[in-house]
Specification:
The structure holds 2 protein chains of 2 kinds. By secondary structure, chain A is of the alpha+beta class. Chain A folds into 2 domains: about 1-75, Ubiquitin-like (UB roll) (Roll); about 85-160, DNA polymerase, domain 1 (Orthogonal Bundle), CATH 1.10.150. Helices cover about 35% and strands about 15% of the residues of chain A. Chain A contains 6 helices and 5 strands, in the order ββαβββααααα. In chain A, helix 2 packs across helix 5 (about 140-150). The longest helix of chain A is centred in the middle third of the chain and has 14 residues, at about 100-115. Chain A is elongated. Helices cover about 30% and strands about 25% of the residues of chain B. Chain B is built from 10 helices and 14 strands. Chain B has helices at about 15-20, 35-40, 80-85, 85-90, 90-100, 105, 110-120, 125-130, 230-240, 250-270; strands at about 5-10, 25-30, 50, 60-65, 70, 135-140, 145-150, 155, 160, 165-170, 180-185, 195-205, 205-215, 220-225. A 5-stranded antiparallel beta sheet of chain B has the order 4-5-10-6-7. Chain B has a 4-stranded antiparallel beta sheet with strand order 11-12-13-14, sandwiched between helices. The N and C termini of chain B lie far apart (about 50 Å). Classes of the chains: A alpha+beta, B alpha+beta. At the A-B interface, strand 4, helix 3 and helix 4 of A face helix 2 and helix 6 of B. Bound molecules: flavin-adenine dinucleotide and FE2/S2 (inorganic) cluster (FES) (2 copies). The site of one FE2/S2 (inorganic) cluster has 12 residues of chain A, from loops.
């Protein structure tokens, strides 16, 4: 089937097989490999992207379903060669280790901060509950989100003191 | 990689019902896909045709009116329920259950109807719908029929919905608006875990109902209780209604015990 999508503001048109997931389409056909496949079954969140303004697990969406949609991936997070506020905070707080979860994690954090500009620690935990990180233990990520949302004093209280 | 199938995204209800009738048993409806695509991926389902319900006109949104009640449709997502002001104000038990389902990004996609048609014993929406006396409006080319949720679930992953039918509307009656209720779900971790036990307790106009998940082959309703019944009577009714199994997640005895714990807590918490 012929599919038109906009990814990070660029328009793409491709033929795609009906049974291909949006995740595989983004990675294999369009080259957006920042979005990862961890489990392929909705558990890990490494495949999280924005589909028409909402975060979804792209491993559980068909590429054909996305026809006509606007998609945003981690590749669109930095603008004009500059990291976003969230990315900079992740960097400062060592919230990235192997990086496999980071693309999806940053998408979920962006969505959380759009809904809740100054989230509490509990709200952060809930916002990223669909994203596994096997490296950091989450504390650095939580501190990065506190910092990115203008709550650096709370981030420093976390005790890891990276930044 | 998923196995091959054909795909259709009908724009009208007639077209969709036609496809279902034509491909009886060989087609599967796709709502949020959070159950279906997992089932296709692991080979449990092998549809020849996948029919997306989300493009059908009139199949999205939530509406509320005194005359029609609260109506949810095939594309109504769990987060639609959580964002809806009428749900929050009038049917808080629905929000309670919706909030406990999966992770934020899954809730953006997963539908209420997909959740009940999937008919997992651990469905999180079923306890609320059972307590609130909701009904399913089921359509096919043959016509339309209504089934109360108390009669909807027929076994593990089995419901009254036939191969050529679509569950088109879930209707929560206006009579249940204002019902007080809470849901408690035992799970290991948020966001990735199906319930080990789930209990919803509703109080309204002197009546008390329990909706229990993960404790029998289907989600169950315990009806016929009163707000002023003593806690022993209510616990005994819950105990009598459930028939849990022991599995990888916990033993039968632990499930029985936790149902009792939740019933007691909820009885005190729902004012
Ligand atoms: C990681 C993960 C965590 C999860 N956690 C939970 C949880 O905590 N609690 C819980 O209850 N569930 C959970 N689920 C299961 C699932 O997300 C829910 O059951 C969800 O509500 C299903 O809705 P859907 O729209 O995605 O259904 P789909 O996958 O689109 O459909 C489910 C089934 O219903 C059929 N169907 C869909 N719409 C209709 C219709 N209108 N009429 C007739 N048949 C229809 C489909 O053909 C399919 O067989 C989880 C799933 C995953 C992957
Ligand atoms: S790859 Fe999609 S949730 Fe794990
Ligand atoms: S940084 Fe390795 S999984 Fe999160």
């Amino acid at each position: 089937m012929r599919v038109h999508v906009t990814v990070n503001g660029r328009v793409f048109e491709r033929d795609v097989e009906e049974h291909k997931t949006l995740l595989r389409f983004l990675r294999e056909d369009l080259g957006f490999t920042g979005t990862k496949e961890g489990c392929g079954a909705g558990e890990c969140g490494a495949c999280t992207i924005f589909l028409d303004g909402k975060t979804v697990n792209s491993c559980m969406v068909l590429a054909v379903e996305a026809d006509g949609s606007a998609i945003e991936t981690i590749e669109g997070e930095a603008k004009d060669g500059r990291l976003s506020v969230i990315q900079e905070a992740f960097d400062r707080h060592h919230a990235v280790q192997c990086g496999f979860c980071t693309g999806g994690m940053v998408m979920s954090v962006r969505e959380l901060l759009q809904r809740t500009p100054k989230p509490s620690v509990d709200q952060i935990k809930e916002g990223i509950e669909g994203n596994f990180c096997r490296c950091t233990g989450y504390q650095q990520i939580i501190e990065a989100v506190l910092d990115a949302s203008g709550q650096k004093e709370l981030a420093d209280k976390g005790g890891l003191k990276h930044a | 990689m998923l196995q091959r199938f054909q795909y259709a995204a009908p724009a009208t209800r007639d077209e969709l019902l036609g496809l279902l009738a034509e491909r009886k048993g060989r087609a599967r409806l796709l709502a949020g896909g959070t159950d279906l695509l997992v089932n296709i991926r692991n080979g449990a389902m092998k549809p020849e045709l996948v029919i997306n319900v989300k493009k059908v006109q009139g199949y999205s949104g939530i509406t509320w009116s005194r005359s029609e009640g609260l109506v949810m449709r095939p594309a109504t997502t769990i987060n639609d329920v959580l964002r809806d002001k009428n749900v929050r104000d009038l049917f808080p038990l629905l929000s309670e259950c919706a909030h406990d389902l999966a992770s934020y990004q899954i809730r953006n996609r997963a539908t209420v109807i997909g959740n009940v048609v999937n008919a997992s014993p651990c469905s999180d929406m079923a306890p609320a719908l059972l307590c609130l006396g909701a009904k399913a409006v089921i359509a096919s080319k043959r016509g339309e029929r209504e089934v109360p949720f108390a009669e909807f679930f027929k076994g593990v992953k089995k419901t009254v919905v036939q191969d050529d039918e679509i569950l088109e509307r879930i209707v929560v009656p206006a009579a249940s608006s204002g019902a007080r209720g809470l849901y408690r779900k035992l799970k290991r971790i948020n966001g990735h875990d199906l319930g080990i036990v789930g209990v919803a307790l509703m109080k309204k106009d002197g009546l008390l109902r329990l909706g229990i998940s993960s404790s029998a082959p289907t989600p169950i309703l315990v009806d016929g209780l009163k707000e002023r019944d003593d806690i022993e009577t209510i616990v005994a009714a819950a105990r009598g209604a459930i028939s849990p199994i022991g599995d990888v997640r916990c033993s039968k005895e632990y499930r029985e015990y936790m149902v009792e714990v939740f019933v007691k807590r909820l009885f005190a918490e729902v004012k």
